[in-house]
Design brief:
There is one protein chain. With 145 residues, the protein is an all-alpha fold. The protein contains 5 helices and no strands. Helix 4 (87-113) packs antiparallel against helix 5. The longest helix is centred in the last third of the chain and has 27 residues, at 87-113. The relative contact order is 0.16.
């Protein structure tokens, strides 16, 4: 189950073909979200927007970020997949890499450092993670055709 030619198994190796680029794009997306969140917390009018139960604790942060992540993840995926052979597979690998990096940074910063025990209880967070996985895969599917 290693994905190498020597063993003869057909498992797909997980490693994306441009690891540094995938990690850079994933980190950049997380930094954009973090900076936007800090800006919202510094502006009393945006920070005062009431939460939407089970959907978003801070809609002034999550709604613009969801739209921005839809756009940015598409263009980042197109740039990343420019030289890829099997674009749908590489798009999925890119999306999973961005997701894993973002969830790791979210756990370290929001849960451990800021002690936000309810961070993962909102749909908007999981929708953002789904965007990180789905949009690059979809971009790969459509660019393959």
């Amino acid at each position: 189950m290693c994905g190498t030619r020597r063993c003869g198994c057909s498992a797909m190796p997980f490693k994306p073909y441009r690891v540094k680029t995938a990690l850079w794009y994933g980190t950049l997306l997380w930094i954009i979200g973090f900076v936007w969140g800090m800006i919202v917390f510094m502006m009393p009018t945006l920070n005062g927007v009431p939460s939407i139960p089970y959907v978003s604790k801070y809609p002034a942060i999550s709604v613009p970020l969801i739209v921005l992540y839809l756009i940015l993840s598409y263009f980042m995926a197109k740039s990343y997949l420019d030289l890829a052979g099997d674009r749908p597979t590489e798009g999925l690998k890119f999306g999973v890499t961005a997701f894993l990096l973002n969830i790791l940074l979210d756990i370290l910063i929001y849960v451990v450092l800021f002690r936000s025990s309810d961070y993962f209880a909102y749909v908007s967070i999981w929708l953002t993670y789904a965007i990180l996985i789905g949009i690059p895969w979809i971009a790969g599917e459509y660019s393959q055709k």
